[in-house]
Specification:
By secondary structure, the protein is mainly α. It has one domain: MetI-like fold (Orthogonal Bundle), CATH 1.10.3720.10. It has twelve helices and no strands. It is globular. It starts with a helix and ends with a helix.
């Protein structure tokens, strides 16, 4: 009986403590109200600068043509083996994304270590972070327009553009992983008499490998989609042929390119999701 009474008293005390904590909770309603008002003002101000006058006759025709092409694609173009057919152009797009991602991932490693505040002095880290920020602020299409003057139109321009653009995003993710390192492991290895190489091999790399690979795969997904849009400015890939077909209104060919891009995106998304899940959970 005494034990039940003690349990009842403890339960009552916990409920009372929870009720007191709820009653004494911080009230930030003024802050939340201010944030909502600021967002409402920004939305209203942004909407005031947009004027939608409806779809033009040309736009409606293009929309109908694209839908017609999607449902009646050019099968010869879709399954052909020539350099102007969908499979070859998709492979070229994948090659641009793979090379651009790998180059960017490798070049991002020294940038990330130099920009990590727990490894390098603060002034050096801030300077390198500023360089990374400058790289990230320039859109990929602008980079492509600059590099196309150097390399000329073609896949090489796409690879260089994606390599540079990947440095900015991948470095940022790498820095987060490096600054989250468990330094106690390094201290334990140091106490065991390990040299610098052994500490990197057994203390640093096991903590960073999974994060680095996951970030690289995520960036590859982005680069694969960017490789299509970069073709618009002549940086190789399937984008250039797609724009030419749109301009000449060859809707069946447009449908073939659209189907190829959709199937490729689904395959890459499925594979990358499985790999990231394997890295995160081991299953």
């Amino acid at each position: 009986m005494a034990s039940k009474l003690e349990n009842f008293e403890q339960t009552f005390d916990r409920k009372l403590t929870a009720a007191e904590a709820y009653a004494n909770r911080p009230r930030h309603w003024m802050l939340y109200t201010g944030i909502v008002l600021i967002i409402a003002v920004l939305v209203g101000w942004s909407g005031s600068g947009i004027r939608f006058t409806g779809m033009t006759t040309t736009g409606t025709e293009v929309a109908r043509g694209v839908l017609h092409g999607v449902f009646s694609p050019d099968l010869k173009l879709m399954f052909g083996t020539g350099e102007t057919d969908v499979p070859y152009l998709l492979l070229q797009t994948i090659a641009i994304a793979v090379l651009g991602t790998l180059n960017g991932a490798i070049l991002a490693i020294p940038f990330a270590f130099l920009a990590s505040g727990n490894i390098m002095p603060k002034p050096v880290a801030y300077l390198v972070r500023l360089i990374i920020l400058m790289i990230r602020t320039i859109p990929s299409l602008v980079w492509a327009l600059m590099w196309i003057r150097v390399t000329g139109p073609g896949a090489a321009c796409g690879v260089i553009t994606q390599s540079v653009c990947s440095i900015g995003m991948i470095s940022k993710m790498y820095i987060t992983a490096i600054e989250d390192l468990d330094t106690h492991i390094l201290e334990s290895l140091d106490a065991m008499g390990c040299n610098a190489f052994e500490k990197i091999r057994y203390g640093v790399l096991p903590q960073l490998t999974a994060s680095f690979i996951s970030t690289t795969i995520y960036r590859f997904d982005i680069n694969l989609k960017d490789a299509t849009t970069l073709g618009i400015v002549g940086a190789g890939g399937i984008g250039a042929s797609l724009v030419q077909c749109l301009n000449s209104r060859r809707w069946a060919m447009v449908g073939s390119f659209v189907w190829g891009l959709m199937v490729l995106a689904l395959i890459i998304e499925f594979c990358s999701t499985r790999i990231r899940r394997k890295l995160a959970h081991g299953a």
